[in-house]
Fold this sequence. Notes:
Layout: E1 2-6, H1 10-21, E2 25-29, H2 33-40, E3 45-46, H3 50-55, E4 62-65, H4 71-80, E5 89-92, H5 98-109, E6 114-121, H6 126-129, E7 132-136, H7 139-152, E8 158-162, H8 166-194, H9 201-208, H10 217-228, H11 244-255, H12 260-272, H13 278-291
Parallel strand pairs: 1-2, 1-4, 2-3, 4-5, 5-6, 7-8
Antiparallel strand pairs: 6-7
Helix pairs in contact: 8-11, 8-12, 9-10
Amino acid sequence: MELGLIGLGRMGANIARRLIRGGHRVKVLDRDPALGEALRSEGAQPAADLAGLVSALKPPRHVWVMVPSGAPVADTITALTPLLSAGDCIIDGGNSYYRESVARAEALKATGVHFLDVGTSGGVWGLEKGFCLMIGGDRGIFERIEPVFRTLAPPDGYAHVGANGAGHFVKMVHNGIEYGLLQAYAEGFEMLEASRYDLDLHAVSRLWNQGSVVRSWLLELAERALAEDPGLAAIRGYVEDSGEGRWTIQEAIDLDVPATVLAHSLFARFRSRQEDSFGAKLIAALRQQFGGHAVKPDGG
C-alpha cells in the first residue's frame, strides 16, 4: 500500500522503516527535514510540506499522523484536512485523549474524510518486535488499511476494537495498567535493594524471568537495565507522565471504578519529582509535636 506518515520521532521513524521493509510505499514528513532525508536511503520519499505530501499520494489517500498529543495533533489535522478529499483517511497513531478522537472523527464526517484512532504500543522495540495496534473507527476503513496494520504488528498484534475513540480508549487503559506494573516492580526491587542481604538484583530479575508468575517483558527490560548499571547510579529517580495515567484515573472516577493501584502509581510519579516534599516535612513536624519524635534538620 501507499501511506503518508507525518512525524518521524522515535516511533514514527521505525513505523516508516517497518512499512518500507514490508513492501509499502511511504511518503514522509517531519518539521525537521533532516529526519526525512535520513530515511531516503532506506526507501522513504520525503516531502517538503503537507501539500507536497498529499499531492504525492494517490486517492484514496491514507495519512498516518504520529506527533505528540494535544495541540500538535490538533494543528496537524487542521492543516491537513483542507488538502484531503472525501474518501481519504487520517490515522492518529499517537496517544491522543479518546474523547478528542471521538470529536475529531465527528468533525471530519462533514468533509467526507475518514478517521481511525490507533493506540500504538511497542516503543523503540517496535521495529524489531512489531507494534501492538488498538484500532478504533469504521470497520470498512479498517479493513481497507489492514495490510498496513498487518505489516506493523506481530502475529495477532492488531485488532479493530470498536467505534471511533475505542482505539485510544483501550490504549489509555493499557498505559494506566503499565503505570501500576512499573510501580509494583519498583517497590519490590526497592525492598530487595534495602534488605539485609547483599542481593544481586540483576540475577534476581533474571531468575524471576524463568517461569515465575511475575515474569514479563517489563521484567526482561529490568534485567537488561540492571545488567548495564547494577545500582542504577547513572539515573535520577525522576519519573514523568505523558497524560494517559491522568486520563485513566479521571475515567475511573467517572465510571465509579476503584482503580486504587493505578491512582497510587500516578501519585508516586508526582512524588518522584519533588526534591523535598512539604507534605513529608509536615508529617515529621506533627510526629515531633505529638510524640516527641526526632526530626532531621534541613541541610539547605
